[in-house]
Every structure is written in C-alpha cells, then in structure tokens.
Amino acid sequence: MKIRTIIITAVLTLSMVAGMAGCAGGNGSVSDTSSVSQVSQENGSSYSDDNDTKVLQMLDKVTLNGKPVVLPFKLSDLGEGYSFDKNDVSVYEKDGNTYAYTDLLYNNKMITTVSLFEYAEGQKTEDFIVDMISYSYLDDESVSEIIKVDDISGKNKKEDVLSKFGEPTNRETLDTGSEIITYEMNNNDNSYVEFWFTKDNIISTIMIKNI
Predict the structure, then answer these.
(1) In this structure, are strands 147-149 and 82-84 parallel, antiparallel, or unpaired?
(2) When you count CB atoms within 10 A of the terminal residue's CB, does the N or C end of the chain come out lower?
(3) What proportion of the chain, given as a percentage, has pLDDT over 90?
C-alpha cells in the first residue's frame, strides 16, 4: 500500500482535466493479456468470483476514448496522432524506487496521465512503456468517458461499479467521506483497477495499472 500511495499522490498531482474530440487507437502489443472465460448473463457477460480472473477480465475491457487498449503499451500500439509530453516527465525517487509520469497527448491535447515502466533519463518517447493510465474527471462531464472499464466511466456511481464487478479487493474511506475501491490481483499489486468516488458516490478518478 506504501507504493500505491506514492503512485496515487503523484498521479493526482499531475492529472489535469482536458477535453478532446474522438481519436483512433488499438490493442496493445507489449505483452499478451491472458484470455478469460465469460458466462452469458442478461448484460452479456459475467465476472468471475476468482479475484485474479476478475481483474484480468476487467483489464481486457479497458477503452481509452472509445478505443480498446491493453496495458502495458507503447506509442506504436496506439495509432496516429498520439504523442507524449517529452518535455514534462516528472520523476520521483522513494525508498530506492523510481516513479516516472508524463501526459499522453492526442493531436497535442492531453487525454490521460501515465506512468512509465523502467524509465531512463534521455529515453526516446517511442521507447516509453506505459504501465498505468489515470484520469480525474472532477466536474467536467465532457471528458467523463475518456477512460472506461466495460462501459463504466466518470458518469457512473459506486452502485454501478459494484453491480457490474462485484465486491472489490480493498475499500478505503477517506477523511472527506469519499471512498476508494480497488480490484487488485492477489499476488501482483502492480495489476489493478481502482475507482475513486465523490461524497455523492460518483466516480471522480479511474486508475488502471498492469505490468
């Protein structure tokens, strides 16, 4: 949880709301995502009671501005129009670990804050490996669907998340009264989907990491 706190603090510091028109994307190819079975239900799919399988199912249904994306990914996996803000890479050192963050852009407009896996100073942007995407929606409904997990986005409430995905791995209530719920693999704390909520139980932030 200590490393998670560092990541959350850094990302929420760096995240900024930005709207954009549609964009093209594609499936990631840096690593293969394990296939998982799905059972037919009224909504067309069902999430496993097995925690690790559930997280894999969720990671397999991530979209970035309407297009499927598989973490981790490189710039070449996304299609034309994408770039990184190479002049604004924030690096944090903590307990011997290095954390690097920048913005992913489409047509020079920021769409999400990302973390970079094994970042090295002077590294070419085409070699960046993204292992985490995050977006804080705040009150701007125009960008509420930048990141979606099986159609769950910044327009949804906590009850929608729990109804679709079931009980999370972890739940945390902040001093403000808002809650964070996390779906995390049992044996890999670097693979998770996390939802932050306002006091009114509306999604304020979605954070997805997989490496």
Answers:
(1) unpaired
(2) N
(3) 54
